[in-house]
Amino acid sequence: MTGVQKGLAKVEVALRWDPSGAGTPANDLDIVAAVYDAADPHGEPVHLVHFGSRSPDGTITLNRDSHTGQGFGFDEVMTIELDRMAARLCRVVVGVVIQGADAGAGVGKTFADVAGTGVRIREGHTDLAASGFESVPDATAATVAEFTRDASGSWSLDARMRGFDAGPEEFARTMGADRP
Question: Residue 18 has what pLDDT?
Answer without folding.
Answer: 84
